[in-house]
Amino acid sequence: MASGLFALLDDIAALMDDVVLMSKIATKKTAAILGDDLAVNAEKASGFVSSREIPVLWAIMKGSFLNKLIILPFAFLLSYFIPWLITVVLILGAVYLAYEAAEKIYEYFVPHKHEAIKTEAKALTPEQVLAREKEKIKAAIVTDFILSIEIVIIALGSVIGKPISTQIITVSFVAVLATVGVYGIVAAIVRMDDFGMLLVARKSKTSKFIGKQLIQLLPKVIKALAFVGTIALILVAGGIFMHNIKPLHHVLESLPLLVGEFIAGIIGAVISFIAVKGILLVWKSIKAKYFKA
Description:
Layout: H1 2-45, H2 50-81, H3 84-109, H4 126-157, H5 164-190, H6 192-200, H7 205-244, H8 246-252, H9 257-290
Helix pairs in contact: 1-4, 1-5, 1-7, 2-4, 2-5, 3-4, 3-7, 3-9, 4-5, 6-7, 7-8, 7-9
């Protein structure tokens, strides 16, 4: 009995060693997409009344956990019964990431025309404010669902071929770490200006100076995160393309890894952007011709 217990403990120790090692690899591979996740959530969680920022962020975070609880079982079933499909999903996800990066770059150079909505906050009833808040939370959770799929699939792709127990523990750990880490940092970012206001209210000149800098820094941090997130999308997508599409790998393998992934990401971004815009243009033409009101 004692020898059986020691054998069990040895197996558990070996499993945990494997999990720790694979978790480091999976976390490293998902780190880039977390940059975009961070930028998106920081942008969506800002713009609320100060007293509502944390409650809104908490609501989005709970939605993110629910998203992952939905995604994880399907991902593990897919990995167990149809493992080759993980690569297909991974490449399709990379196409989406590449298109999103291209869309952001296009939006920067050719900004979309948005309707200017000039509604005084005082004109809104508490019910209207709550309704708008719920809409923003819902939109943020939908966006998180898409990004969560990518995080889970990329993490799962790094442990394909490992025992299913290792896959479950590793990917679940990465999913929880991603959620807590991202929303913890977002909470710190969106409260940066409030902390700055507290420092400004103090008598110390140093406190006032630091407070003013923090207030002015918030929009710049969110913009910087958006830029870093776009580059991250290109690199993540490029890495997936380069490592899973053999002809592209052979063409770019002589280049430094980062350069090869960036070029592959740019190629994917251009092709996906042209393809999606072309499909939308054709659909718009068909809709105008055959579905006139």
